[in-house]
Write a structure and sequence with these properties.
Blueprint (H helix, E strand, L loop, with lengths): L1 H14 L6 H11 L7 H15 L4 H11 L28 E4 L9 H16 L3 E6 L11 H12 L6 E4 L4 H13 L3 E4 L3 H9 L11 H12 L8 E4 L14 E6 L11 E4 L1 H11 L4 E5 L3 H13 L6 E5 L2 E4 L5 H9 L14 H7 L3 H11 L6 E4 H16 L4 E3 L1 E3 L1 E7 L4 E6 L9 E6 L2 E5 H6 L5 E4 L3 E6 L2 E6 L2 H5 L4 E5 L2 E2 L5 E6 L5 E6 L11 E4 L3 E8 L4 E7 L1
Parallel strand pairs: 1-2, 2-3, 8-9, 10-11, 12-25, 14-20, 18-21, 23-27
Antiparallel strand pairs: 4-5, 5-6, 6-7, 13-24, 14-17, 15-16, 17-22, 18-19, 19-20, 23-24, 25-26, 26-27
């Protein structure tokens, strides 16, 4: 049992860069050796013991040991495609696919938007097509002026700067007016002046209101009167449909309404504003959208838009929907978040605590991680619930795959304490900036016996055990303090009473003050090695034994990083 457990623990640690998953290991072992089920308790204890034993091992040493135990496990397996590979779109041709996303400018984009936007972008890429960003701002009362810039920045980032066109609906009112008039002139639409309650009751009963049958000339006059004459809320332009349609939502639904609210962007009270189904139908046609990919909560809207297009003599795009995705445990309301920002509960849309894209970009998440997440889920009608824990686990794993090959390694010592290793030799310690990419070079630390380690590491040092300072030396803790024992890693590896491997810094004046802003907005203070002075703002580094972090700014007396993930 011991050797079997050992090899699978080593394999898991190697596959996931040291982040060991006990549940995954257990599953692998039981599939390989189902007879171990008889002694489940012993198996779990052996897994725990083995994980504890290798937790501070270097990956290269893990690989060497696995080569001895079972070299077959190191053989590269053919990579499988994503669990949810992108299915072909209906009636799609290479070079002719046009997709769009259509957010409302009520705030920045969040992780929910990231899924839909990335999925559309992936299909545009798959078919060598176009990706259009259309900002739907025809409701003057629900607009945050700063959102226009934020949304465009986020969309460009999510698509790797592949947004083909940016459309703002409030700039296209005359186009909507023209086509709405066509519907009136063709007697496909009418202006209803019934009060809301009366109309709702008649609609639910499948009864037509008196406005519906008024002569064409009066309808045309009423349409013009919407722009100058009727008061706000007094008239609505409706499409003539089957008033007895089995779905009440499809009965004579609205196309335009009067709203005198000043538009935050246009700075005009345009009075007559299209409802979403009208503006969307017109835009999708005029922009040449071939495929509309969005949530199934828009299924009724798709039917309405198709009705409008058919009455105007247009061909509707292909509609394909995905199931509802509930991001459980997240607050994704733009209106609530905006209020919280205005009340100084958050510093802005890029506050480290928020699941909005400006914050995630600033922390160091890559667009490719969200693209991978969207690809994994795919275009499926099945409803899904993604918990906070599940989301971060997935997105962090995808992100790590992207940044790990390019992130230099450094030592960061939180809450440092001074330690003297008695009899330790003076040694110039060279450590690779990246274990897997020697071309990146190395950084140099001066080992002189007087060092800094983390306060919590100091507390965890057990007496009469052999501990190791990474790449420097081995030492023991005795009653009188810390004492040098040897230099070679093999000595530590073969020590009977093996302790911890810890990172360290020389006690010198060239260390750099480091602050790390954590995901809960708390601050960690500590020291970093002098080589950090070469890191540029925006660079992502890996602090060994801690986490990945992005350098946000260089201040006079310190470097400020944002915590990313393990």
């Amino acid at each position: 049992m011991k050797d079997t457990v050992r090899k699978f623990v080593l394999k898991n640690a190697l596959d996931f860069k040291g982040s060991v998953n006990p549940k995954a290991i257990l599953g692998l072992i039981l599939r390989s050796s189902p007879e171990f089920k008889k002694d489940f308790q012993k198996l779990n204890k052996e897994i725990e013991s083995c994980i504890a034993d290798i937790k501070d091992k270097d990956l290269k040493d893990i690989k060497k040991e696995l080569e001895k135990l079972d070299p077959n496990l190191l053989k590269e397996k053919k990579k499988e495609g994503p669990k949810g590979p992108l299915k072909p779109l209906r009636n799609a041709e290479k070079g002719k696919v046009v997709v769009r996303i259509a957010p409302s400018p009520s705030g920045a984009l969040h992780i929910g938007h990231a899924y839909g936007s990335s999925l559309n972008a992936l299909y545009a890429q798959m078919y060598n097509g176009k990706f259009i960003l259309r900002i739907e701002d025809t409701n003057p009362e629900n607009i945050y002026s700063g959102a226009y810039k934020l949304i465009e920045e986020d969309a460009q980032w999510l698509t790797n700067n592949n947004v083909s066109q940016v459309i703002i609906q409030s700039e296209r009112l005359e186009t909507y007016y023209k086509h709405a008039k066509t519907l009136v002139d063709k007697e496909n639409a009418y202006v209803c002046t019934c009060d809301a309650d009366t109309w709702r009751e008649m609609k639910n009963n499948g009864e037509a209101c008196a406005c519906r049958s008024l002569p064409i000339k009066e309808q045309q006059d009423r349409y013009q009167k919407m722009f100058k004459g009727f008061a706000e809320g007094e008239a609505v332009l409706r499409l003539k449909t089957d008033i007895k349609h089995k779905n009440p939502a499809m009965r004579d639904f609205g196309l335009m309404r009067i709203n005198d609210h000043l538009h935050p962007k246009t700075k005009k009270a345009s009075r007559v504003w299209p409802l979403m189904v009208l503006s969307v139908a017109i835009d999708d046609h005029e922009l040449g959208v071939t495929h509309v990919l969005n949530g199934k909560d828009h299924a009724d809207n798709a039917k309405k838009e198709t009705m409008i297009m058919e009455l105007l003599g247009w061909k509707a795009p292909e509609y394909q929907h995905w199931g509802r995705i509930n991001f459980e445990g997240f607050t994704l309301s733009t209106s609530k978040t905006r209020i919280a920002i205005e009340q100084n509960e958050y510093t802005g849309w890029d506050d480290v605590r928020l699941p909005f894209l400006p914050a995630l970009r600033k922390r160091g998440y890559q667009s490719g991680a969200f693209q991978k997440f969207s690809s994994e889920i795919g275009l499926s009608l099945t409803d899904k619930t993604v918990s906070v824990e599940e989301f971060w686990k997935m997105i962090n794993a995808f992100n790590k795959d992207i940044i790990e090959p390019t992130s230099n390694r450094y030592f960061f010592v939180e809450a440092p304490v001074k330690v003297t290793i008695k009899n330790a030799p003076e040694k110039e310690v060279k450590i690779d900036l990246h274990q897997e990419d020697k071309k990146r070079g190395a950084r140099t630390l001066q080992g002189k016996g007087k060092i800094l380690i983390q306060k919590k590491d100091r507390k965890d040092l057990v007496e009469k055990r052999t501990h190791r300072l990474m790449d420097y030396c081995n030492f023991e803790v005795k009653g009188e303090g810390e004492t040098f024992s040897s230099q070679d890693y093999e000595d530590y590896k073969n020590a009977e009473n093996k302790g911890k491997i810890i990172h360290w810094l020389p006690d010198s004046n060239d260390l750099i003050n480091v602050e790390i802003i954590m995901g809960d907005n708390s601050r960690l203070q500590g020291k970093g090695e002098s080589g950090l002075k070469n890191v540029k703002e925006g660079d992502i580094v890996q602090f060994e034994r801690f986490a990945f972090a992005r350098l946000d700014k260089k201040e006079k007396n310190k470097l400020v990083f944002w915590y990313l993930h393990k």
